[in-house]
Amino acid sequence: MVTSSRLVTILCFAIAIAGVIPIFAWLELSPRLVFAAGLLIGILQEFKGRWHLKNWQFNLILVPVFIWYTLQYSSSNPIHPVVSVLVIMLAARLAGEKSIRNLMQVNLLALFCLASRSLFDLSPSFLVWLALLLLLVPVSLVLLTFHAQDGALTFTRKEVRRVALSALLMTLLTLPAMAILFPILPRTAFPLWTFLNQPTSGSTGMSDKVEPGAVASMAESAALAFRAEMEQQTTPPYWRGTVFNTIQNSRWSRNPSVPSETSVPAGKQVSQIIYPEPSASKILIGLDAAAEVALPSVRVSPDAVFDYPRGLGKRVGYKVRSGTGGLLRTSKMINLNFYLRLPAELSPQIRQLAEQIKKTGKTDQERLELAEQHFLNGGYRYSREGLPTGKDAIHQFLFVSKQGHCEFFASSLALLLRTAGVPARLVGGYLGGEYNQIGGYYLVRQDAAHVWVEAYIAGKGWVRTDPSRFATNAGAVWNIKQKLSLAARLRLLADTLDYRWNRSVVSYDFERQVSQLRSAGSKLQTLEQAIKSRWRWALLVVSGLLLLFLLRTLRLHRFCCNQEEQLLRRFRQVLKKRFGETLVTENKGLFEIAIATNDEQVQQFAVIYAAAVYQDRKLVRDEVRQLSKLLDQLAEADKIC
Amino acid sequence: MDISPTVKPVSVLVNTLCSHHLQGKDEVVRLAVIAMLSGGHILIEDLPGLGKTTIALALAGATGLSFGRVQCTSDLLPADITGLSVFNRSEGNFSFIPGPIFNNIVLLDEINRAMPRTQSAMLEAMEERRVTVEGTTHQLPDPFMVFATQNPSDQSGTFLLPESQLDRFLICTGIGYPPEELERSIISTGGIRERIAGIAPLVSVSEILPARRTVSQDIYLSDKVIGYIHALVKATRNHPLIQIGLSTRAAISLAQASRAAAFLAGRSYVAPDDVKGIASAVCAHRLVIRAGQTTDRGELLREIISSIPLPLV
Strand, helix or coil at A10? Predict the structure, then answer.
């Protein structure tokens, strides 16, 4: 047994906690402390005794707090003051008297607090807290209605369960409405949370230059780069991002004025949807090599690099169609000079090696193979530590230390190729990634960033070649099919949830609404055509029958199920008009009314109507007609009078 | 089904009695006929000189039924009502001389003046419809109906009927003074006692018995009306002023009387109106008001009835 006041107070604490916990991490220290104090005072007061401060006194205290935070408000700091005031108000209500009004305010403030969470971050855990509040608040509201009637009301365990169940039912009933509203509600083009908190740019990973020898060792970042929804590939996929086409000293960078060329990715066509994590980058990643990226206002360079001028600051998803042959076919000659430019200083040993390759190989294809042979037989190791540094890092790597990461491999191969007269460029992107079987997508982290080489073979086009895989320990670094541990699998599962949330809630925008509508429209069109060609007549007949059936049931519903009620309602209305309000009440029988009115038609109505109703049979059509006619006559007579 | 052939003689009886012989006593006549049709008994509670006896006599005369009268006094013995065995000298054996109860209509005048012993003997006969005297059981005639009267104001030397025995009367009603106009004409013409003796029978037993059968068997009582009756009974049980509400027997009686009322109205089904119209007469005397309450039972019941919505759909 528990009193209603105790019950609603406990619930109100629970709701307040559930509302504030989600934003607690973002709160400043003072609101945190005030909230904790308010909660503590509230609990002590509920279980120990009454607090002597009145509500208006609390309100008075809130005024300076409010003014203080109003002064704090600025366009650069718009959220914190508002949220702090919310939390402090909630704390004051928790500590104050628990009148019905205050309890309602606690419910509302807690909901606002939770809602403000979306200003900081919108992760799936928001949904969990929202669900919790959606369950607790209706229970609290239902209990409050009891409480409003009688504060000393007591509940047994069973009754509490019933109240909770009915509240749960209320919540469940709203679910269909939510499901309907979610896809059709309009969206803002700029989600509030990303607009207010511009995400920090991608930490490591793909960079805008390749400069081997700049650092001695490289840190790995396990942060997520992007997800790619597609079928699993047999080999680790290459994700093409940008192209570095210019070398200055030992630094490769991208010259934005790319000489024009027409390149078409060759090989099996694969479609995928890429969901990059928000970052400051503007480069769109795609499976090597992307032929088409379906995103409005995308810029494509001649070397098949896709740019998104709006930036990837907010969550987007885009569809990419790629050819997976590792070859970009070119139909006409490219600007050879541009791709053969060498740095001013070149180590003589490299030049010597290149000359050797140039002499031995008759064609560019052979020269490329020779250069690859050099890496394959040279005993190079892949490593992220103990890297050669300095200006002659490439020379060091090629002839002395023979260990480095992909940047060393790729830039030295490209340099070698260019020196040997084969046009070459570096490609920056990602290699591999974890395939999530549950979600059906590749999970690519920043540490999968990779650089490889594209060499131009006349008559063929740009051929992808990755010297890193010629390293002696390449097998150990890539292509490892290790069995997933339970933790890893759980991690993948959690990532699936996160992915679904981002896909279906966060990045759900107007474009997608339109595309869904459009696809529905096109499906309807194809259906229409199919119908037109074959099933026209059958469909006409069936729809006609359906319509008839519908009409019939509606009619039956109208005239059978509620017929008596309808007639009675009309009877009452007519009599009220004609004989006054007092005559027709719930507690008067039909015959009683008939005698009181002393009217022939009323009597007839009573006789016909009662004969059906009190013999437990439905009115037949003829009787209905008769009754309606009588009512018409009565109404007419009234007009004449 | 068509019940008009059976209804007709009975309605003629009621109409003739009301319009020609018992002016201003329509309601009592109707109730008496309802009691007769549903095989119950009627208790008329009113002051002397308002025509209680006249009604009983007129009903007996108009139906052509035999009539017996018992004037109850405190020294009345059960044998005075039931009859007794007398030694027949010529035949040399005891022969049973039936008392006044062996009539179709029996008037028990001022029943509260009889001793409880006599009262209970009479009431037992009313319930059982047979009398056992000296080991021999004698069936009472059919139809059998008791017209009991009691004088509520004169309380000295009376034995109030206990609730359990009041329950045996299907209907309990008063008569009331006639309207002014009517009373004047009654004063001018004098009583009708003498004329009643000359009433020609309007219905016969052969018409009354089928009518009774129709009432008990052919009048339809729908679930809605049963629900209404039940709601009414339940309301009396939960009422704060009432100590003992209506019994199941009371509900049965109400249903029976409602059937008879519907029959009289010429309908083959019971409408809630029938129940409502008769409920006060059938039920009021069965209620036991809480001690210290002075509310009139009839008023209270009417109040309860008016608070229950009628099933109209």
Answer: helix
A141 inside 8 A of chain B by CB: no
- Is B271 within 8 Å of A591 when comparing Cβ atoms? yes
Mean pLDDT of A14-30: 90
In tens, the pLDDT along A571-585 reads 888 888 887 777 777
Which regions in chain B score pLDDT beneath 70? 1, 153-154
Q: Give the closest-approach CA distance of A626 to chain B in angstroms.
A: 17
Q: What is the pLDDT of residue A206?
A: 62
- Nearest C-alpha in A relative to B277: A592
Determine the structural domain holding residue B19 and report its residue range: 1-193+202-217
3-state class percentages of chain B: helix first, strand second, coil last, to nearest 5 = 50, 15, 35
Chain B residues touching A587 at Cβ < 8 A: 305-310
Average pLDDT value for residue range A233-240: 86
Q: Does one domain contain both B119 and B241?
A: no
Q: Name which of A564, A565, A616 is nearest B223 (Cβ-Cβ).
A: A616
The answer, yes or no, to whether residue A217 has pLDDT greater than 70, is no
Q: Contact A589/B273, CB-based, under 8 Å?
A: yes
Domain of B227, CATH number, reads 1.10.8.80
Closest chain A C-alpha to B310 CA, distance in angstroms: 5
Q: What pLDDT is recorded for position A190?
A: 44
A592–chain B Cβ distance below 8 A for any pair: yes
Strand pairing of A461-465 and A449-457?
Answer: antiparallel
Q: Given B182, B217, B252, which residue is the final one in a domain?
A: B217
Q: Do A210 and A451 meet the contact criterion of CB atoms below 8 Å apart?
A: yes
What's the pLDDT tens digit per position in A113-165? 998 887 777 677 887 888 888 888 988 888 888 888 877 778 888 888 888 88
Query: Are A600 and A633 a contacting pair, CB within 8 Å?
Result: no
Q: What is the total count of domains within chain B? A: 2
The residue written with tokens 């609101």 in the block is A31
Terminal CA-CA length for chain A = 64
Reading the block at residue A69, the tokens are 């935070």
Torsion angles phi and psi, residue A225, rounded to 5? -95, -55
CA distance A424 to A409: 13
Ramachandran quadrant class, A430 (left: phi over 0; alpha: psi -120 to 50; beta: rest): beta
Q: How many Cβ atoms are within 10 Å of A474's Cβ, its own excluded?
A: 17
Whether the CB-CB separation of A101 and A7 falls below 8 Å is answered with no
pLDDT tens digit sequence for A177-199: 877 776 666 554 444 444 444 44
pLDDT of A197 = 45
Question: Are residues B140 and B75 part of one domain?
Answer: yes
**B17: burial class by Cβ within 10 Å (0-12, 13-18, 19+)?**
buried
Q: Which residues of A386-424 are buried (b: 16+ CB within 10 A; e: fewer)?
A: ebbeeebbbbbbbeebbbbbbbbbbbbbbbbbbbbebbb
